Amino acid sequence: MKPINPWRSLLAFVASLGLAACATDSPTAPKLAGEADKALVSELVGGLVSKDALTWKNPLAEDIKVSAVIGKEGGSLSIPAAGFYLTIPEGAVQEPTDFTVTALKGKLVAYEFGPHGITFKKGLQARQDLGPTDWRLLQLRPLVAGYFSDEAHLDYSAKTALLSEVITGVTTPLTKQFKFSIEHFSGYVVAW
What we know:
Largest sheet: 7 strands, mixed
Number of domains: 1
Number of helices: 1
CATH architecture: Sandwich
Order of helices and strands: HEEEEEEEEEEEEEEEEEE
Helix content: under 10%
Strand content: over 45%
């Protein structure tokens, strides 16, 4: 029989206390978009998850804003200069809605969506081309999308973001694309 390591037991006990305190049903816990994301609960900082933001090879010199009125038939918006594409499926909204997407100036791959707070009957599909970013194929951490409620939660000098919601997505290395679903509008950043 293998002897029990008291330090390992103590560490496991302390970790279990931390996870219990940060349970996903806590009113201050961020919404996590899947069972696999529950491991992220251990990264909580004051009710927010801190993540390293994906960065541009060349920072955006200014905000790039696009808008379109899209109704129940669906539609799309894109910011080709940022490699960002958004598909609004049929039935996501019930009446004509003025959609806006703004790629935020600076080094972080971050966007503001409007109208803020709107939720959708069907998830919108976002696609970020990774070619103009510092993404690397051999990066060990998977990309995620993160919801930030205030631009003050983006730290441009540390290249990090404090997130209220973490959304898993799909990275396709061959085409250098990251895709994720958006259920409501606010700010989103692509992160590790």
